[in-house]
Amino acid sequence: MSQISETSPKHCAKKGGININNRRKKLFFTFSTFFSGLLLIIFLIWLTLHPAKPEFSLTEADIYTLNLSSSATHLLNSSIQLTLFSKNPNKKVGIYYDKLLVYAAYRGQQITSEASLPPFYQSHEEINLLTSFLQGNELPVAQSFGYQIVRDRAAGKVIIGMKMDGKLRWKIGTFVSGAYRFNVNCVAIVAFGPNMTTDPLAPIQGTGCSTDI
């Protein structure tokens, strides 16, 4: 008599379940391997190209107004025209600049309101000139501000800090990185004119700027 072996429906269901689980695991392993390899390639390209920080320098800073509207309330009026030189030193990496804000400071005090610059793209080794007009109307300053200005007037020059905050993204081929916050700090040594309200103050020394990312 021949032996007949039958598999119960329960066993079939169990076997089918194992096959389904195995397929899911294989698909998960395949996709994980693919994305891991893609991220590794992007990371290796990033390490190989190693983007350098953008370079900035202050080419012009003209101060038209810098005086206290009231010595009692210590409110400052200011107007400054500045021009920044911007360069992308990378040969194979482009830069997207987003949300750029520029303002001026004197002895650690902000003396103008923030002015926004339009976002732009900077190609490989491209150079751009960024111009902005900064203005402050009755901005509160420290009580020592008037004394410091008088002392600098006697010395014939004033040191103004030009600061820019923003975000940038690196572009490598078709890949665009996430946003990185960066800060630019410049220093302008400016000569006093004989009349602060009518005579612009001319910069007496050009300056490079530091960039932090």
Automatic annotation (TrEMBL):
PANTHER family: NDR1_HIN1-LIKE PROTEIN 26, OS05G0367900 PROTEIN
Domain of life, source organism: Eukaryota
Keyword Transcription regulation recorded: no
Transmembrane segments: 27-49
Record keyword Transit peptide present: no
Keywords: Membrane, Transmembrane, Transmembrane helix
Listed name of the protein: Late embryogenesis abundant protein LEA-2 subgroup domain-containing protein
Chief place of localization: membrane
Membrane topology type: Single-pass membrane protein
Domain Late embryogenesis abundant protein LEA-2 subgroup, residue spans: 86-186
Compartments it resides in: Membrane
